[in-house]
Design brief:
Structural class: alpha/beta
Oligomer: single chain
Number of domains: 1
Helix content: 40-55%
Strand order of the largest sheet: 3-2-1-4-5-6-7
Number of helices: 7
CATH superfamily: NAD(P)-binding Rossmann-like Domain
Bound molecules: nicotinamide-adenine-dinucleotide
Largest sheet: 7 strands, parallel
CATH architecture: 3-Layer(aba) Sandwich
């Protein structure tokens, strides 16, 4: 039996690219998203199957602990195991701090931060039993260097980065690694919040050393690396995949 990856928020954008990248690398896929995205999720499942891998739809809202445990159980039962967890599901809203509503604050933390915690917690007993696993959390360069108008979102991504570091410490010699990937500005439905018009696109191209906007497949490559044997000695780290918008250590 091949290796299995569970990807949250896999119906479109970065999650879809990650799922297809992992399928090309030989993984069978448990594909998660919310019920509303079921038809897009079916399309990704068909694409995974066209690559020659198995796929299983495991819809659940990552904010809901019961649903999350059900999702992980379904993935293990349906595909036999979970070798790789990619916590990718996320939401973004924009507002300056004086204008962020309590609901906006709670919503973005519930999906982006609590969701990562709940899914990770649900998968860990299985990975620990097998003494093997890879957890890859999709954070953001915004979690390292925030921008005006997205304080609540950036705070969730900083939370994911620190959660991942502590997770790696607690995993010790369990055989499980945990790392974060920090996308820059990527052209997806979410990315369009920052790339709404030609002027914004040109602004971000100019702010990027490689002078282009990122594509979902740019992120998939980094996730596939963290899912592969090539990254066996890397844990608790974060990798900026941003074309050079920010530079760690400088
Ligand atoms: N696009 C960017 O520029 C960018 C930059 C940095 C980080 N990211 C991060 O990358 C990840 C993917 O973003 P994207 O650009 O593909 O966004 P997207 O909006 O295209 O996709 C996000 C997916 O997550 C799903 N999702 C949302 N809430 C969910 C929930 N409660 N339970 C399960 N699934 C849920 C959505 O339905 C959607 O399919 C997110 O974590 C995002 O914060 C994106």
């Amino acid at each position: 039996m091949g290796k299995v990856a569970l990807v949250t928020g896999a119906s479109r954008g970065i999650g879809r690219s990650i799922a297809l990248g992992l399928a090309r690398d030989g993984f069978d896929l448990a594909l998660n998203d919310i019920d509303r995205q079921i038809s897009d999720l079916h399309e990704v499942a068909a694409e995974v199957q066209a690559i020659g891998r198995r796929s299983l739809l495991v819809t659940a809202d990552v904010r809901d602990k019961t649903a999350v445990h059900g999702m992980v159980g379904q993935a293990i039962e349906g595909l036999g195991q979970v070798d790789v967890l990619v916590n990718n599901a996320g939401i973004l809203t924009s507002a300056r701090i004086e204008d962020i509503t309590e609901a906006q604050w709670d919503d973005v933390f519930a999906v982006n931060a609590k969701g990562v915690f709940l899914v990770t917690q649900a998968v860990l007993p299985h990975m620990r039993r097998r003494r093997s696993g890879r957890i890859v959390n999709i954070a953001s360069i915004g979690g390292k260097r925030g921008g005006p108008g997205q304080a609540h979102y950036c705070a969730t991504k900083a939370a994911v980065l620190e959660f991942t570091r502590v997770l790696a410490m607690e995993l010790e010699d369990s055989g499980i690694t945990a790392n974060s990937v920090c996308p820059g500005i990527i052209m997806t439905e979410m990315g369009k919040v920052n790339l709404g018009d030609q002027a914004s696109i040109e602004k971000w191209e100019a702010a990027t050393a490689l002078r282009r906007i990122g594509q979902p497949d740019d992120i998939a490559g980094a996730v596939c690396f963290f899912a592969s044997d090539a990254s066996a000695f890397i844990t608790g780290q974060s990798l900026n995949v941003c074309g050079g918008v920010i530079f760690d250590g400088g």
